[in-house]
Amino acid sequence: MKKLVNSISFFLFAAALFSCNKFLDVQPKNSVSDEVTIFNKASSEQALRGVYNALASSNYYGTGFQSIGYLSGDNVQWTGSQSQVQEFINHDVSAENSTIAGAWSAIYQVINRANNVIAKVPSVVDPQLTDAFRNQLIGEAYFIRALAYFDLVRTWGGVPLITSPTTSPKENSGIARSTADATYSQVISDLENADALLPETTNRYRATRKTVYALKARYYLYRGQWAEAEQFASLVINDSASYRLVGPYNSFFAADARGTVESVFEIFYNGTTEVNGHRNQWQPQTNGGTRQWAPSPALLALLSDPVTAGNRTSLVGKDNQGRWYGNLYYRNPASDPSWVIRVAELYLIRAEARAQLQNTAGALEDLNRIRYRSGLLPASENTSDLLLLAIEQERRLEFAFEPHRWFDLVRTNRAITVLGFTDVNKLLLPIPSQQILVDKALVQNPGY
Amino acid sequence: MRTTLIYILFLLANGMVYAQQEHRDISGTVADANNNKPLPGVSISIQGITGEIIADESGKFNIRVPKGHRVLTFSLVGYQSRDLVPGTDGFLSVSLQRSNRQLDEVVVVGYGTQKRKDLVGAVTKINPADTRHIPAGSFDAQLQGKAPGVQITTNTGVPGEAVNVRLRGATSINADNTPLYVVDGVFINSSSLQTISTGGKSTSPIADINPNDIATIEILKDAEATALYGSRGANGVVLVTTKRGSYNQKPKITFDISGGSAWAPPLWELTTGPEHATLVNEWWINTGVDNPSLNRNYANRPFRPKSEVINGVAGRGLPEEQQTYDRLSEVFRTATLQRYDISVAGGNQGTRYYIGGGYDKQESILKPISFDRASLKINLDQKIGSRAQVGVSNTVTRSYRNQGRAGDGPAGGLLQAALHTPTYLSPYNDEGVPVGRAGFDNVSLLIDHYDVNSRSLRYIGNLYAELEILPKLVLRSSWGLDYNNYDESEYWNNLLIAGSPSGLATSSITQNSNWVNEQTLSYRRSFGSKHAFGAIVGNTLQQSVYDRTYLEGRGFANNSFTQIASASAVSGTQSWSKNSLASFFGKVDYSFNDRYLVNFSLRADGSSKFGDNHKWGYFPSAGIAWRIIEEPLVQRINAISDLKLRASYGITGNQNGIGDFAAQGLWSGAVSYEGAAGISPQQLANQDLKWERTSQFNIGLDLGLFNDRLSFEFNFYNKYTRDGLLQLALPSTTGFDTYWSNAAEISNKGFELGIRSVNIVAKEFRWTTGISLAQNINKIEKLATPLQYGSRNLILQQEGSPLYSYWLYKQLYVDPETGKAVYEDVNKDNAITAADRQVIGSVWPKLFGGISNDFSFRNFDLGIFFSFQYGNDTYNHNRFFGEGGGARDAARVIFANNLKRWQQPGDKTDVPRSDGVNVNNYLDGGSRWLEDGSFLRLRSLSLGYTIPKKIVSRIRFENIRLYCLASNLFLLTSYSGPDPESSANSSQNQPGIDLGTPPQPRSVQFGINVTL
Fold first, then answer.
1. Which residues does UniProt assign to the signal peptide (chain B) (predicted)?
2. Claim to verify: residue A120 and residue A173 sit in the same structural domain
């Protein structure tokens, strides 16, 4: 009996004491250790898709960042309860604004993912990874990083420049803000790198050399380098086999259209694993949305005026309670693309650059291409000042629910006049207060 | 019946030897020392021999004492035990003193039991019979106010939803703060498996336990008491012991059936349609006055005659023409409550069993929510010879819930639709079609088409074997399993916002299993009459595996198709996680002369969650107690019947609630683009991540006066948590927002006082009072950067303030001249910016507890139980929305309180002028909506009548009791919402924000309890 007891107890304790280390070593299945990540062709491609995925995230081109661009203009009214939305409309954004906070961190997430590709893909050893393809992957990462810094600088001014991946909590924090010029320099340098690495192909969902041209055109427009803006806009416009306006206006988005020839770069969402939540803010309840953001009375007036609207009235609809709603983002499941650059923008960039360069005829021609597509009579402004105002107005309607209005008015120094506020400090948005708290090196923009 | 002596002596093993030798027969009677009435049921044991006999109904007993044994122990619950040596005549006349304080009461502690007098730690024992009829899904929700130091906040009127249970405060920001629940030795899961959104709320896994199956609940509070649970004990331990049969007991069948109704307390006061319209017009005109460029004036006010069309927009009609639509009474109902329990318990010499079945259905007062639970309980113990025993505990439960969003969020939000929709808006559009207004669902459509439910299938079981290897040396091994299959489904048709335009169906199946294997070896022995010694060593292996599969379908042909199979777009996801814990522990206790008690214990835990170099944590504790009552000096004072001083210090750990892979650097594969797989950095590694450690000092005093008629239990504690597990904020420039670290330090200190008084004991009347009272002071001692939580960052965690501090703009007054709300300009920059937010008020009560009074008169019993909290605040977020002064126009209801707004110079009020330019008048996070959340609640009122024995026995029943129980009939509070405990969110870092949540109901139930 005693023997039996002893052997049982010995067995039980031995069982209990079995290799604890093994027992305590549990590895995840949905994630992998960060020690082996980008190591062959497939993982290099996947890491790049991860960068696009971040670009598409709900706080960046998924909704958040985009909303900064149009809520801060004068096209949208707020019907919901969150005053953080109203802050943009009132041009009095608090440093605690959650959209601001979300966008800031989403953009830096894109940068970190891009930095991983830029840093690690060059040293991947895989015979299947050709140099051309390797260059393409790195070039796309450079393009996305350029876009990220461009969005940062036009929203907040100069920001900390991070160009290497973060591998420990101590890295890439405590870095002071660069100047706006230095940030723009980072943008153009990344664009030049992308330009050199990318092939000259057409892809509307991913960056190619032609996508780089388009962003360069926008970059030079923001920098006031009109000749370069005109030059790079023309490079895309002239490729009319690949890029041209579609008509009527709603052809680029209605009836589940995506990837039309109008599109230079748009972000792809499949509606299931890649969801564009934008529609929830715009659609009325009967379409499963909240209609928190609705077209403003001023915009509705413009869209109901035959002189300004044309067939762009298709941007809005009416629900079963007689309320207007914006209808650019409508698909169910939520797979609306987020348009980043359309050919229409390149025409208007070139029109503006030409107007600045006193080429009024050229400017008018580009402007009227846009008006013609929307079923409007041609404009006839004949001085560059009048043309610039007409272009501004055209952009307001052409990109009514795309993130341009605020940035356009800020870059042309027209925001205060047009939007009717007084504090010049509000032209730059505040660095999120949580970031200021966490990172002592960050200095808040004046006036916040 | 028990007319003859019953032997349950187990004289196998040792006893067999003695049986062949000489022995002596002792007989006698046992009586109550107070009235000399015979005492049946007293258990009599021979010191040094396992087993006992029971005195018969007339208090007589007869026992055979083997040679070499002399001392007999007489014990009965409610009486003081006595050790006696029979005289030479072989007859003993024994009288037992009543013990109100029940010093000999057996208390379940970690891995064993102790008599109350031998306790060194702080342990509260609760008899759940008092509370189990309170209409709440889970037993923890029923315990509010019952145990000193246990703060229970029922943040919703939805039965079966999670409640906040905090034992001696909260110790962590990102790790779990709920106590460890141990049911019959199984460490059960207490985190909700809910994955569908119900507006921030979650279901309670504790609700899977039928309160009727619970025999006792012990709450272990200090480090000494929780020491053996080491790594799991930092937030205290709730030990649940379920009912078991008794050896040598005839089958006892008990039925308990009750039913009743629940209804809502007074709800919110809203403006009528005309009042709403008046306020909106006023806001419109005021806005035009402040900013003429807006061109808003009396002529173009929104509520003008319908005939006045301006810019193509017709007026909405004059204010007095507006209708008022009452949506609240459509969504609230008188709910029915039903409960059926049946159990059989009994046993023979070697077997005892308990079989219980229960069905409980509780409707929420908020349509269409309901909770029902069917449970089966089978407990069995079998002796094998004299030295071994095996047993099982089994609970199988199926909880079914009709769920609804009763919290935050527009789509499907029940109170958003019913409370937050402006009262002037018709539920129908001009064509007579039902429509949702203000961005919320149509109430009727919502109630009629709500189809969100969950089924929790739960097994909690334990199998043990116990063997006395050598005399007094007991080896026990047990395997326990907590398995939960949690199956949720939603279907939203296209009449509801969430399902528009073509329907949405989801299905989620979550499986969670926790298994635990334990071995303990325990030894207990007395040396001489003065030394008693006990020791236990053991180990535990635990593993928890979580597995979830989720499927969603959108795009249905029409509303007749409700299954995902019919959807045109289907997507799914899966998640899996696992963690392991290995532990070794030991404890020794020693008592000298029944007067000085010393305990020491140590536990080592290894967790899979931490970095390679920090997997193991070591948690020691020590406790001493001095039973001063045994000192001759004190014994001379007649008034003092018990006096004990206790002190303990120890360290416990915490790792619950953090990610299973928190220490690892991870890349995720769930980042696709163009439908193709991608990878991305997900989490930064922290190989230094280690155990959160809480040290706790406790000093306690137990005092009994006047033969324990009046007794006090006092505890003072000081807890300090180091290496607090925290998702530390990182600058976003790193590409990450947080990483897991040990960065916070939090302290909790406070006291607990339990008072029990037997006020009157007369022949047929008895009145007892119990009071529990506690205070906890919580403070974040160290936190590098403040953290914001909750809607609109209403909650701030910062160094120097308590956890969950409200972070608000302090409204000083409304300027009587201008009607503007004036806020404290903290940084004196003449502008109200984020920098002017400050910590105001506290979610923590200054005092909390309960008062119970129990009366019995002849066959009647009456219980009155109040629970209370004093000094805490609640943010009335409903009111924030409802007091926008008309600025939210058709988007939100306006509360009646808004009618007190400033209107003209000289008006003195705290509700500012309605205007749209000075948005500060309805600033997010204004302190105007922070209200005193103190309350005194008549938690339960019960009245029972036990039918006299002579009638009952005539129909061969043992006992019949009829009862009536009411809850929440009375609530004293200055809080303006219906329930100061309401909170919109179940997550631990955002308590105390009342939004869209139904109040706890008032209820009355009638029941009958029959024992055969």
1. 1-19
2. yes
Residues from chain A contacting residue B475 (CB–CB below 8 Å): 5, 8-9, 12
- Which stretches does DSSP call E strand in B706-820? 710-729, 738-761, 765-782, 787-789, 795-797, 805-809, 811-814
CA gyration radius, chain B:
32
Which residues, 6 or more positions from B297, have their beta carbon under 8 angstroms from its beta carbon? B285, B288
Q: B339-364, pLDDT tens digit by residue? A: 999 999 999 988 999 999 999 999 99
The answer to whether the beta carbons of residues B789 and B801 sit under 8 Å apart is no
- Find the domain containing A108 and state its range: 39-198+413-441
pLDDT tens digits for A183-198? 999 999 999 999 999 9
- The total number of structural domains in chain A stands at 2
In a domain, A26, yes or no: no
List chain B residues with CB under 8 Å of A105: 732, 737
| Whether A70 and A206 share a structural domain | no
Q: Are residues A212 and A193 both part of a single domain?
A: no
**Which pLDDT band holds residue B11 (cuts at 50, 70, 90)?**
very low
Angle of helix A343-356 versus helix A384-398 axis, rounded to 10: 160
Length of chain A: 448
User: How do residues B559-590 score in pLDDT, each as one tens digit?
Assistant: 888 899 999 888 888 899 999 999 999 999 99
Kindly report, residue by residue over B805-826, the tens digit of the pLDDT. Answer: 999 999 999 999 988 889 999 9
Question: Which residue, among B466, B504, B679, B829, would best test binding to A if mutated, counting the most A CBs under 10 Å from its CB?
Answer: B679
Residue spans of alpha helices (H) in B812-935: 877-882
Q: How far apart are CA B874 and CA B887, in angstroms?
A: 24
* Minimum-distance CB partner of B410 among A115, A290, A320: A290
Residue A114 lies in a domain: yes
Same domain as A124, residue A169? yes
> Which is nearest to B41 in space by CA: B55, B58, B31?
B55
**Candidates B435, B667, B924; nearest CB to A34:** B667
Range of the structural domain that residue B50 is part of? 14-98
Sign of torsion over alpha carbons A88, A93, A97, A103: positive
| Residue from A310, A313, A316, A312 nearest A375 by CA | A310
With cut-offs at 50, 70 and 90, classify the pLDDT of residue A3.
low
A88, A72 contact by CB (below 8 A): yes
Backbone angles phi, psi at A16, to 5 degrees: -70, -35
Do A437 and A368 lie in one domain? The reply is: no
CB contact under 8 A, B661 and A111: no
Residue of B734, B807, B889, B920 for testing the chain A interface, max A β-carbons within 10 Å = B734
One domain, residues A207 and A194: no
Quick check: is A234 in a domain?
yes
Predicted confidence band of residue B103 (pLDDT cuts 50, 70, 90): low
Mutate one of A285, A318, A329, A434 to test the B interface: name it (highest B CB count within 10 A): A285
Dihedrals phi, psi of B339, to nearest 5 degrees: -150, 135
Q: What is the pTM of this model?
A: 0.85
Q: Distance between CA atoms of B527 and B531, rounded to whole angstroms?
A: 5
Residue B452 lies in a domain: no
| Count of structural domains, chain B | 1
What's the average model confidence in pLDDT over B39-45?
81
Q: Could you give the 3-state DSSP secondary structure of residue B150?
A: strand
CATH number where A435 lies: 1.25.40.390
Residues A232 and A98 in one domain: no
The CATH number of the domain holding residue B18 is 2.60.40.1120
Q: A139 CA to chain B: closest CA distance, Å?
A: 17
Residue B681, amino acid: P
Q: Is residue B628 part of a domain?
A: no
| Spatial distance between the Cα atoms of A201 and A133, rounded to a whole number of angstroms | 13
Considering the domain architecture, whether residues A367 and A424 belong to the same structural domain is answered as no
* CA distance linking residue A225 with residue A203, whole number of Å: 27
CA distance B617 to B690: 8
Residue A301 lies in a domain: no
